[in-house]
Amino acid sequence: MPIQWIIIVFILFAIFKAWRAYAGGGLDRRKLLWWTVFWLAAAVVILLPQTATLLANILGVGRGVDLALYISVVVLFYVLFAMSRKVDRLEKSLTDLVREIALKNAKHDHEPDQR
Amino acid sequence: MKVIAVLPAYNEAAVISDVIARLNAFVDRVVVVDDGSSDSTGDLAKRAGAFVVRHLINRGQGAALETGTRLALDFGADVIIHFDADGQHDSKDIAAMIAPITERQMDVVLGSRFLGKAVSLPIGRRLILHLGILFTCFFSGLKLTDVHNGFRAFSRAAAMQISLTHDGMAHASEILDIIADKNLRYVEVPVTIHYTAYSLGRGQGSGNAVQIVWRLLINKFF
Prior knowledge:
Chain A: InterPro entries: DUF2304. The complex is a heterodimer. Chain A is mostly helical. Chain A has helices at 2-23, 29-47, 49-59, 64-109. Chain A folds into 2 domains: 1-47; 65-109. The mean pLDDT of chain B is 85.
């Protein structure tokens, strides 16, 4: 099916990007390995859907595609949660940093209070 | 009794000088938190006689108020006033805002435009504010006549207990939550709000209200 090949091309692109990031120092070796394994596993499931169906049947799901969708949705929601926590922490750190610098600079300007 | 006004200001060059000039007579010191403005807000504020502290990047009104309040405490403030930099508040109301703290040992004084006179308040904004009042009553249990009014006064002791973590506009609700949590003594005082074309353009729009509610709900989860 054409959709399989479209996704495979995308997966190759994703793997290529991961290796480029690794070469550029933006991705450490553990993460590179993780992403490569993840994308290769996805490729296997896409080229041989019956492998996923095998696992799906064990778990009581009719089709492998359905299982893949269920797992994806759950994982994506969790990732969203984790990311939002991370962004909040970042925002807080950023505000703390900006405030710290502002107050430190203010201390420099602060002449003895006349009143 | 040292009274310090804290003004969070983001690109308010058009009005900041006037606002400070009108404030100077009523407070001992004006602290302007220039929240990463890209115009000359900070310089103008300094020239108008305010003490200016500058956020290198814009962090939001809540963050600016927190920075300014800490600085005011550092300066030895006995009373800290939150005041909008866009000119919608009336400095003549300051004496009435301070009185409950100095005379009746209140911790927090909240300005209310519905006890006072809201000069030319558009109907749409009035509706949104009333929804906000209901929302606040539901979540914090405080029965108020106004919410999200940036005009407030705090005793030194109260200001030391309040630490704002919502950087954006939701800080107004956060302050009310803290008042409820810590059982601070609060009172509302009528204040006049001047709704000019300028302050309406700068202030929180109706879309912003939705955003605030959304942030508050999201914060219940994350």
